[in-house]
Amino acid sequence: DASTLAATHNDGETVNVWPDSSPNGYDTDNKRGNPSFVLNATHGQPAVNFDGDDGLWIDSKRFDGDTLRYTIFSVPRYTDDTNQERVISGYGRNWLFGFHGGSIQSFHSDGWLINKPGADKEWHVHTGLVKDGPIGSMWMDGVPVVIDGPGLHPTNYRPVNIQLGGYNRGQEMSKAEVSELLLFGRNLSEA
After folding, report:
1. 38 with 81: CB under 8 angstroms?
2. Cys-Cys with 57: which of 70, 137, 151, 163 at CB 3.0–4.6 Å?
């Protein structure tokens, strides 16, 4: 949640570490460029801005050992019409969630669950749920995009490390903002 950065950052200040709000210690511990804190983004909430060559990622902890099933939520947006690649991605595995190559409805982990064309610069709430199999589902702004679909890799369906702003520490970078990212190592129910 980018609002946690308001206690330690002024508007426009470089974000070197985005601390994990949980007690699990998944802080971003590496960066590229100068991702910056935005106190009041266009949706009225704080965000971290990535200007096309910026990235934040987690090196010190891996997700693939803890996440046999998982649920992920994100609140990001593209900020440019032409520099639209990955926003929430990984390295160590070809994994991405939400945005890719001008698409705002993408989910991939060594195999496509969905990659629907079309992009904009609006804020979106993406929700993903990966079950055993792996069988995956994705919603955008509360509307189902795919439910219980195949396509993710049978064993490599989990992120290894997560990066914001691009992929693999410097590839497929985007001009974007991220306000929220939550990853749960279990499936959450709608209730």
Report:
1. no
2. 163
- Beta strand 95-100 with 30-32 is unpaired
pLDDT tens string 132-180: 778 999 999 999 999 999 999 998 888 888 999 999 988 999 999 999 9
Please give the structure tokens belonging to residue 74. Answer: 């994100």
What type of residue is 49? N
With H, G, I as helix, E, B as strand and everything else as coil, classify residue 150. Answer: coil
| Contacting residues for 157 by C-beta, under 8 A, at least 6 apart | 109, 110, 111, 130, 134, 136
Give dist(CA 107, CA 103) in Å, integer: 10
Task: Check if the beta carbon of residue 5 is closer than 8 Å to that of residue 37.
Answer: yes
